[in-house]
Amino acid sequence: MSGGIAVAGTIAVDEIKVVERYPDKTELTTISDIKRSLGGAVANCSLALSKIDATLPIETLCILGEDEKGQYIYNHLKQHKNIDVSKINFKNTTPFTDVIQDKNDKTRTFYHFKGNASLFNEHTIDFTKLNSKILHVAYLLLLDGLDQTDDQYGTKMALLLKKAQDHGVKTSIDIVSENQERYQKIVPPSLKYTNYCVINEYEAGKTAGIPLRNSKGDLLAANIKDVLKSLKSFGVKDWVIIHAPEGSFGFDGKDYYSLPSVKIHKDQIKGTVGAGDAYVAGVLYGAYLKFSIYEAMKLGTITAATSLCEEDSNSGILNFDCLMQEYQRYPKHEEIKI
Hints:
nine-stranded mixed beta sheet; single chain; four-stranded mixed beta sheet; alpha/beta
């Protein structure tokens, strides 16, 4: 297999616990269901891409622990014939996330144990052995080894992405949503060596220093162009895409795009874990097929939408032809003018 998409960085086991309602501090709530699935960008994006195209060569680049959780992830990934697990390293303890999902509103809260994630650094990937056309690395702000400062490039993540581009590989990044003020320090250096920046509205606003939601949680549509332009100005080579529940918004350096989300009845939504990664996977597959940014956003939109129909991150995702049919079938929300 050669010439596909590589996914690198964060991988974990998701221990999903569905609760009757999310409690306040010191309160008790009842767990109604417990499930386990793969989590993190490497697992979520790789499996989503495999569902979209079972013939697409996918390389997984990550570090698993020498433990039961690491073996669980490895065994699951290697079941997919087009996912290459040969470059996975095994060290220390596998990261895991307790995903607490509210049964009523489907929102989820994450408690993450980083484990060996800090061991993933700028030396982990051997680019002389990489066969892919696109490398997706995630998540910034969660990979301690790559978030470190680099004297020449700003961060070790920026150095890693520069190495990839020097080897003729296009790069993609995603960010974790966290309630800290590190975005403007850690993210911009990487954008200079990024081809595809595909992030949500919270991460985009934090990185640009321009809010995209007000205190009531309403989307500030008037600020979207400024955020897109700001992110592109950091050096993103090809596409900047922001996805939100209301829709997604793109900028290719020339034109701005607004695409509404599809309408899904709340009874169809079984979980939202990994929906952002599903969106990214759809966009990356569009980039791989040399789609326009707008067509890639459509694929990202419907990939994310179908992922909501199951509790884990990828079981609901369909193959490419079916996804395109579903996109045409689903009604759409009103387009947001930007």
